[in-house]
Design a protein that fits this description.
mainly beta; Neuraminidase; 2 domains; five-stranded mixed β-sheet; 11% helix; disordered N terminus
Length: 315
């Protein structure tokens, strides 16, 4: 064995080990980068000046946010944060929203006193339902069976839109006055977020001005106060999963987590959730184990360049 052969024999294993190690380092770095790309972002930027309020998420990772400024609908992927406007608004608000099984987006119309149904594939407005004129604020919506139910924060009434075989008709709009334990406070925001009881037989409505949660009979409109031992100050959007009810307390920058009985007559506070990224979170949608809340930033004067975002929260 000459000197050259000796050097190659001694150094080859070391060089090989070094190359393998380097390769492993590169592979690990690549895997870390890929993992980072797969990790859902904690903050999802919306277009500047968007003024979000409502959010809805369907079966897939696509989320929809509506604009209080002009009714635009923005869609984004919760896994990547990337998105785009899919529907140009008509200049009136899009407030609380829900997706139905047909992929249609139901959006409350705020002070315009109406609601719209948007095709999420084309962005086209399929139908506008007129509810009220004058002092009104159609705030939020829940889908129950074959009907959509809307709250009005300025009137002691719920609006119902019944849908038969998926058909959308103004003739199927009805009003349900709230009575029983419901006391309307003049000049304030009253009925806001709306959901259903765990057994599906009644509706749940939070009254923002009093922080009270009510169970409403969908036949009679009779409201009874839900006994939870907690005041839902600035209660806004509701999201129920099983017997757990999440309540956005917008200006308090937190989410109350309640555990309800099956009939929705009683419940208890389990805990409250907060996040440093909250700036007046208004409504809640869920995807897998994550909650998503748009920040309306009501304490910030809106301008065309004001930044807005959605915050991811893991309960």
């Amino acid at each position: 064995m000459n000197l050259g052969q000796l050097i190659r024999t001694v150094l080859a294993p070391t060089l090989a080990t070094g190359l393998v190690a380097s390769g492993l380092v590169v592979a690990t770095a690549g895997s870390s980068a890929a993992a980072a790309e797969r990790r859902p972002p904690a903050r999802i930027a919306l277009p500047n000046g968007f003024q979000p309020e409502g959010i809805a998420i369907g079966r897939g990772p696509r989320a929809y946010v509506g604009s209080l400024a002009d009714g635009d609908i923005y869609r984004f992927n919760v896994n990547t944060g990337r998105g785009q406007r899919i529907s140009q608004g008509d200049g009136t608000p899009a407030v609380g929203m829900k997706l139905d099984a047909r992929g249609r987006l139901w959006a409350a119309g705020g002070a315009d006193g109406d609601a719209k149904v948007v095709n999420t594939r084309t962005g086209r407005v399929l139908r506008t339902f007129d509810f009220a004129d004058g002092t009104t604020f159609v705030n939020d919506v829940v889908l129950r069976g074959r009907a959509a139910w809307f709250t009005d924060s300025q009137r002691a009434v719920l609006y119902k839109v019944a849908s038969r075989r998926g058909k959308l008709s103004q003739a199927r709009v009805s009003r349900l006055p709230l009575k029983g334990a419901w006391n309307q406070v003049a000049g304030q925001f009253n009925a806001n977020g709306i959901s259903t009881t765990p057994d599906g037989r009644a509706l749940l409505v939070v009254q923002s001005v009093t922080g009270r949660l009510f169970r409403v009979d969908p036949q009679s409109g009779r409201a009874t106060r839900v006994r939870i031992g907690y005041t839902l100050t600035n209660g806004d959007g509701l999201l129920r999963r099983g017997n757990t009810l999440y309540v956005a307390q917008n200006r308090d920058n937190k989410v109350a987590v309640l555990r309800l009985g099956d009939r929705g007559k009683v419940g208890r506070l389990v805990r409250t959730l907060s996040h440093p990224g909250f700036d007046v979170p208004t409504t809640i949608a869920r995807y897998r184990d994550r909650l998503y809340l748009p920040n309306a930033r009501f304490t910030t004067t809106p301008t065309p360049t004001t930044p807005y975002w959605v915050t991811k929260l893991v309960p």
